[in-house]
Amino acid sequence: MPVATEIHPIPGPLVDSDADLLALPLYSGDGGPRVVTAGVGLGPADLDTRLPASLAELLAYYKLDAKPGETLEFPVDLGRGLVRLALLGVGAGAPGDLRKAGAALTRLAKGRTRAATNIAFLGPGGTETATAGAGLTSFVEGALLAGYRFTLRSSAKGPEAVPAIDLVAEDPGRIAGPVRRGMTLARATELARDLINTPSAEKDPKWLADRAEKLGREAGLGVTVWDEAELERDGFGAILGVGRGSARPPRLVRLDYVPEEPTRHVVLVGKGVTFDTGGLSLKPNDNMKLMKTDMSGSAVVMGVMSALADLGVRARVTGLVALAENSVSDRAQRPGDVVTAYGGRTVEVLNTDAEGRLVMADAMAYAVAGLEPDVLVDVATLTGAAKLALGTGIGALFSTDDALASALSEAAEASDEPVWRMPLVEEYRDTLDSQVADLANIGTNKDYGTPGATEAAMFLREFAGGLPWAHLDIAGPGRSTSEDGVLTKGGTGFSTRLLLRWLSA
Ligand code: BES
Ligand code: MN
Ligand code: ZN
Fold first, then answer.
1. In degrees, to the nearest 5, what angle opens at C-alpha 268 toward C-alphas 263 and 273?
2. What is the pLDDT of residues 272-299, one digit of tens each?
3. Which residue of 25, 35, 93, 499 has the fewest CB atoms within a 10 Å radius of its CB?
4. Among all ligands shown, which has an atom nearest to the Cα of 278?
């Protein structure tokens, strides 16, 4: 769904804006919270006379401590009747604080048509100069993502309008770059959210492949799509096995971003199970009802690929999305069946609900054999165990490479999409041994307990060809059940921004 919020850099002063909500940053400088009045067009003394009490008195009365995202609003007359003046907590003004503030402003202004703020006058540490790039980018990201809506309601009860936001700046041209970067990061995430939130009655592998093709063309990417006959021809037995039970056959999509003189080649692989019933190892309904989101990894990869050119990413990036519906029928793969993954390795399918690692294995093996990547990163809603271990707030990161793990963790922190590195435990390796095939798709040695997220990661590692590889299990943070900050109910597109920050660092 196109997001209604728009962000416009405009020349000041703020009092000249015809917005119905004017927001002034409140930051926690030395000596207590302080309101930024630069760019407002009224001095602090002048402002005081128009408020119900002076700013200093109001801050003391309401005991505001400038917490990021804290808001307080008053009606004031700035010369053209009453408007709402909001104080918007921005903490110390760090990028993460400004992201929260942006989200809070959108949520505060919901139902209005236009808000305006002089936040661009807040520099790092709260100095009243033009805000440095990263902070403004985060503010825009927060403001846009908090306004994201997905609805299939009939028009009578459409979503509440979100406002356009005017960013007053001394020199609007100078903030255009960071604003645009924030918009690109948010748009990529929104694209992922739309795909994730689309019900699976509409969203089958072909539908998602068509969407990938369309966005690929729009973003100037190379696009290759394998249909079921081509998957068969080229030996993608694992994707085909997962999709066999569905009347809606699987697809593999490759998106190619090739800048001039690329610095390195990164391959991104996304899990695209358009609905996960569990297959013949059927899920109970409570677990199954959320499974339209089981293609979140592929949605993230698609969102990322759509934004690379806009962000001027210097690496060559190839996105692979492995699309299949894990369904039930007399044709479905059975527990005990053996599939042959791309390149020839055989896998015994002991549980058809461990299907994500199968589709990923085919795509990863293809990347290793045919694409000469320098780095391989995969994203998947892979295991309930990752969600159990870390909850909905944090993604699980597994990696064979310390430098890669640190770089991703840093980008995760900068995006406020936190990840926690988990171990690949060598002693557990034999749990993937199969009686009949090269590998089993679930752990077979119960002596280790059932470290589900680790087993799945170690299974994937078998297909990483010894490359520097990282795996993001986003089963927990891929969905949100609350409206909070940048999160909206449903698919979150978690890790879209972290991957883009990592790629554009
Ligand atoms: N798609 C699920 C994982 C999942 C669970 C994602 C909850 C989001 C929320 C995956 O395909 C799956 O079913 N994994 C099984 C693996 C098991 C059979 C070894 C799981 O985690 O239970
Ligand atoms: Mn499953
Ligand atoms: Zn799944």
1. 170
2. 999 999 999 999 999 999 999 999 999 9
3. 35
4. 2
